[in-house]
Amino acid sequence: MSRFEIYSPEGLRVDGRRWNELRRFDCSINTHSHAADGSSYLEQGNNKIITLVKGPKEPSLRSQMDPTKALLKVSVNITKFSKTERSKTSHKNERRVLEIQTALTRTFNKNVMLHIYPRTLIDIEIHVLQQDGGLVGTLINGITLALIDAGIAMFDYISGVSVGLYDTTPLLEVNSLEENVMSSVTLGVVGKTEKLSLLLVEDKIPLDRLESVLAIGIAGAHRVRELMDSELRKRAEKRVANSTN
Amino acid sequence: MSVAAALPKRKRLSEGLTVTQKVFVRSRNGRASKIVREHYLRKDIPCLSRACDKCPEIVVPDAKSELPSFVLSESPLELPSIGKHYVVLDTNVILQAIDLLENPDCFSDVIVPQIVLEEVRNKSYPVYTRLRSLTKNSDDKKRFIVFHNEFNEFTFIDRLPEESINDRNDRAIRKACQWYGEHLEPYGIKIVLVTNDRLNRDAADKSKDSFISMSLFDYVQALPNGDEIKDSIPNFEVSSENTKDTEAKSEFTYPEYYSTSRIMGGLKNGALFQGNIQISEYNFLEGSINLPNFSKPVLIVGPKNLNRAFNGDQVVVELLPQSEWKAPSSIALDSEHFDVNDNADIDGDDDNSQVVLSDKQRKLLTQDAILAQKSNKVQPTARVVSITRRSWRQYVGQIAPNSVDAQNGGTQNVFVILMDKCLPKIRIRTRRAHELLSQRIVISVDSWPETHKYPLGHFVRNLGEVESVQAETEALLLEHDVEYRPFSKKVLECLPPEGHDWKAPETLDDASAVSKDPLLPKRRDLRDKLICSIDPPGCVDIDDALHAKKLPNGNWEVGVHIADVTHFVKPNTALDGEGASRGTSVYLVDKRIDMLPMLLGTDLCSLKPYVDRFAFSVLWELNENADIVNVDFAKSVIKSREAFSYEQAQLRIDDPNQQDELTHGMRALLKLSIKLKEKRINAGALNLASPEVKVHMDSETSDPNEVEIKKLLATNSLVEEFMLLANISVARKIYDSFPQTAMLRRHASPPSTNFELLNEMLQTRKGMSISLESSKALADSLDRCIDPKDPYFNTLVRIMSTRCMMAAQYFYSGAYSYSDFRHYGLAVDIYTHFTSPIRRYCDVVAHRQLAGAIGYEPLDLSHRDKNRMDMICKNINKKHRNAQFAGRASIEYYVGQVMRNNESVETGYVIKVLNNGIVVLVPKFGVEGLIRLENLTKDTGSASFDEVEFKLSFTQATTGKRRDVHVFEKVDVQVRSVLDQVTSKRKAELLLI
Fold first, then answer.
1. What is the domain count for chain B?
2. pLDDT computed for residue B139 by the predictor
3. Which residues contact A165 (CB under 8 A, 6 or more apart)?
4. Residues of A in contact with B864 (CB under 8 A)
5. Does the beta carbon of A211 lie under 8 angstroms from any beta carbon of chain B?
6. Taking the mean position of all CA atoms in its chain, how far away is CA B138?
7. Fewest CB within a 10 Å sphere: which of A150, B417, B656, B888?
8. Are residues B732 and B757 in the same domain?
9. What is the ipTM of this complex?
10. What protein family is recorded (chain B) (predicted)?
């Protein structure tokens, strides 16, 4: 028996949010301007990640070169100290991490205009400093921000968010406590549309409930997009102001 | 659990939200880890008072877009000393006095702060659920609400450096009270904090805040009806005021429990063991505990070693040194006759003899203990060193008359003797001792301090005169935890609005009917089949019906049609919840406690003759040899042609003049059922017996007047065989579709240790034995246990073997591997219950799963989830067991009433020989009773007990001759019913002639 009321009859979740509320969302870009071409630092609740984008650049291996388009490579480094208990092994070649990398590559392959950077490599590196549930969604947002910072052409924002299903109530953006006790899905939503570039369903979820889960997920992702957009615009205005001075 | 950390910062977000971090250090496996959680604070948490005009503006809807309802009354209870007020409860009050809070005559308009709710949840989950159900049905008289103080920006407080977590929580409660006090001041409503924590009260008084704090006792005293409910205040006698009552304070003290850290360490390194304690039925000072490493239960003997454990408690035990191991006592002892006058000190095992052992020595001791169990002579013993979880609930009992002081008219301490004889008597304080004498009362246990010989409790409610039908029935329902209150309004609202006028639609494609029930066209119309039902006489809840028809190819089409309860009981409704929690209908001698409301059970679902009814049908094609050629499942609509009783059906089948098609079908069913039974017996199905009897009631006075042993007809087994076949077919189908969560029933094979004693008795007395190799071998060896001189002997052995069997249980298929699905008694590899959805919840689940499996409608989430299925299974297993016990207790009571008028001499069988008595079973009444040595002989000292031969020899009181009594011996006993003076329980008393 869980020690907590996951969703109280009064409509409050373990951390005090309501069913349709996002966690705290803090982001900044161009945080590591010397180390990479594009970078971002993102805190989504207690998920804290650094994303570095290097490229488009010449690939170190000839085999990685595609004459028609750029190659997108995502590597996720989950640090040993990112969870409450320090893990003994590095997560580098864990199946789960490899799966996440593949999922992220596929999510962005269609959205980045790879055809305009032929024979190049776009290398995305993510460092997870702290995690607290719904990690894949956060990773998507981090990549979107870093790619924009690197000035790589994309069709639209992709914003990621996770949604859990508690009994019959969908809960937006699960934290790790919630993630452990209920099934959840992760969405990657393209811009302001209802197009999904990622739908990650790792637990069983009843088909007849999926629609309400997706609806709140898409609404949440749109809100995330707005938050990212406003931060980017703020940043851009500052740059413009600097350059005109 | 945690250490104070540096104060986290708050950060303001948009939309009236603030976020802060909860930081604490948790120790797990001896390692400390720092945990950081987000904690959001908000401004939109309403006070939920109808008087308030600010809060309705801030509320927001939930996921179903419903707004919270404002519950607290604008004109709450007004007391002369306080004025109009709401009550805020502290954790200790809720944990101690939840019964009092549930009392409809006191405590309305109550605020439960979230922090209190969390503390209650961590301390006791059952109390939490009771509290939650109070807050859920809050729109009626009680008006309980939960106030989320921890998420409210105005009432959240940070933990100060050096402040303990309890102090911080107490401060949070006071903060919430203060907020409420200020918030409601304009409306003239005061806040009263009721807490039994003196420090908390002092702190509240000191700060002179905007609320009043009181102890539970003071608050109840201030109520206008305080005197009446004062008896229900729980008894936690540790304060100094009560030292004057020396009556219960003997020198006797129990050993202290070990500290948590010592327990944890001991369990980890194997020096201590954890398990559920079971108190012996015959001796309340002897318990046993099943431990994983030991092949047999370990004994716990004597009050000091039992150390305040109740029957069923989860306890931690420690093995005693070898010098204290012993054979299980063969003495019968029950609490009601033990220490009746209670002033003597019991000489338990001497405390000073206790040897200090190191952990290493303890491990060696464990090995010795396991070896000793195998050699069978002495049994290792243990003592309780801690109680992990109490099994305390409400108990039924009556006041021991000799504990009441006749002169004293005021409050006094009295003993209550419980109906469950495995439990000690309870000490309660009451002012109404005289009034409550010879009444059945409900009490609740509060505490058992080590300085008290008996546990302390308090009075909850009076059921009525001892021996009155109503009080006894209610007592046994309560004692077996059977929910018997009428169905609530919410549950009844789930029934079809047409009520008794509900009709199955004429045609299955009728447009108006389809619009109401889009699944209707998926039903199969079986109204042309010649279906009939066969049930016990007077049966009103008919849940099964049958038909058989010859097919052109010579095979038989056989259909079993089960009432389609799930058409009316949809998942996640209040009706479904009620059914799930009741789990089963309970059959008492004079009444039936239904699982589902009458309208469904006896009308809409019942497959009554001559009307159209919805059913769930299992259709087989069987060949002449009753092998299944084909099986099909369908929701259907049927029309039963006739409802027979077993006798009527038998007569119709036997009557050669009946040559209509229905009778032909019934004959075919009978023929096929005989084949099925034969196959089942050949596969090794057991034919066990229980001493079941039936009580006949006088039709006018409804007094019981006759007891009869249940008879079996061929038609009984006709119905039974096809029900078994249906259950097996359904089990296979749902396991196929839901391999992880199918609702199934298993019956484990009995461990050979269970049969050891019986086999030994058979061997020495009769030269027979029971083989346990397989169920087939068991069945055959049971058949061989025949005494040519006594036809009943075989039945007796069967009754005794039944008691050695494991109980069958419900489970979900993910819980065991396929090989463990076996039903030992029926000798099938997979089984479920499908055929009685009106009276069993398991069948309701099986129906839904089958409907999902055949694609009729998607299966509800709760039956696809392992955790939810686990909860359902646990509950229905418990309810099923309780229902059986309640049924037996009811028969026992009525048999006692019958015997009251007819005292007689009957034949009995000795089934157990003890050191100081014998246990005799009287088949005619299905009663068994202990005959104490005192009643067998005048000279108890001359009696000798031979453990090897199972023999007790003594000088008979009446004849003065020496007499030996062996186990299995046929004896004549005088049966009469006596009212025990101490317990005022009527029971059969047996006297050897």
1. 6
2. 54
3. A171, A182, A183, A184, A205, A206, A209, A213
4. 204, 206
5. no
6. 27
7. B656
8. no
9. 0.93
10. Belongs to the RNR ribonuclease family.
Looking at domain A25-244, its CATH superfamily turns out to be GHMP Kinase, N-terminal domain (3.30.230.70)
Residues of chain B with pLDDT under 70: 1-9, 14-16, 28-30, 137-140, 208, 235-252, 326-365, 367-378, 409, 688-712, 957, 980-987
Pairing assessment for the beta strands B743-746 and A169-172 based on DSSP bridges: unpaired
Give the integer Cα–Cα distance in Å for B735 and B749: 21
Same domain, B295 and B208: no
pLDDT of residue B700: 56
Residue B936 identity (one-letter amino acid): L
pLDDT of residue A71: 94
Q: Is B593 near chain A, with CB under 8 Å?
A: no
Residue A112: burial class (beta carbons within 10 Å; 0-12, 13-18, 19+): buried
Q: Which residue is it, tokens 């006041």? A: B399
From the number of C-beta atoms within 10 Å of its C-beta (0-12, 13-18, 19+), residue A67 rates as exposed
Mean pLDDT, residues A204-217 taken together: 89
Interface contacts (A, B; CB < 8 Å):
73
One-letter identity of residue B542: I
B121 touches A at CB < 8 Å: yes
CA–CA gap between residue B925 and residue B2 (Å, rounded):
62
Q: What is the pLDDT of residue B374?
A: 61
Joined together, the tokens standing for residue B984 give 């005022």
Question: Residues of A with CB below 8 A from B146's CB?
Answer: 8-10
List pLDDT tens digits, range B804-832. Answer: 888 889 999 988 889 889 998 888 899 99
B151, two tokens: 């998420």
What's the pLDDT score for residue B421?
A: 76
Contact A84/B at CB under 8 A: yes
Residues B266 and B141 in one domain: no
Please answer whether residues B417 and B403 qualify as being in contact, where contact means their C-beta atoms are separated by less than 8 angstroms.
no
Alpha-carbon distances of B513 from A57, B77, B603, rounded to whole Å: 68, 51, 20
Q: Are A124 and A51 in contact (CB under 8 A)?
A: yes
E-assigned strands of B576-689? 586-587, 592-593, 612-622, 628-645
- Tens of pLDDT, residues B273-308: 888 888 877 777 788 888 877 777 788 888 888 888
Identify the pLDDT of residue B1.
40
Tokens of B769: 């034995």
Beta strands in B765-876 (DSSP E): 809-812
